[in-house]
Design goal:
Elements lengths: L1 E2 L2 E4 L4 E3 L13 E3 L9 E11 L6 E11 L3 E3 L1 H9 L8 H16 L3 E11 L2 E8 L5
Length: 138
């Protein structure tokens, strides 16, 4: 049921809409790159990512892959996990989630290159894969 641009999920009594991506996010901490003079790739895979559908409020499940070539900083994994957890209560389309993750992680560690891939589980009979990156890989 739509109510003034928001969607009401009667089963849960919660309201979800396009603005639920706003609010504080967990900080992704970093540590110094142990080999800053060498280009090498780091790949992190989170197979248990969850966000909310902004239209229904139902959970969306995905595997999020982050691959990057670090410059001076690397992503710290525990804080990355807590950052991902903040999406559990946020309503956003797959495309918005994937692009926001890229923007936030690039802001955290300023890599030479980064790609974020979201492998979203089937919804309505369609599986979606969203790929976003900072540019050409060196």
């Amino acid at each position: 049921m739509e109510v003034e641009g928001w969607y009401l999920d009667a089963r849960w009594g919660d309201r979800f809409g396009p603005d639920t991506m706003e609010g504080p996010m967990a900080v992704v901490e970093t540590f110094p790159n142990p080999a800053p003079n060498r280009d090498y790739a780091i790949r992190h895979v989170c197979p248990e990512f969850t966000s909310l559908c902004p239209k229904t409020g139902q959970p969306d499940f995905a595997t999020i892959e982050v691959e990057y070539i670090p410059a001076g900083l690397c992503l710290e994994l525990k804080s990355l996990k807590f950052y991902y957890f903040t999406y559990r209560d946020r309503g956003a389309f797959f495309e918005a989630v994937t692009n926001q993750i890229l923007d936030d992680l690039v802001a955290s560690c300023a890599p030479k290159w980064m790609r974020v891939t979201g492998h979203f589980n089937v919804r309505g009979g369609i599986a979606s894969v969203i790929v976003t990156e900072t540019g050409l890989r060196p």
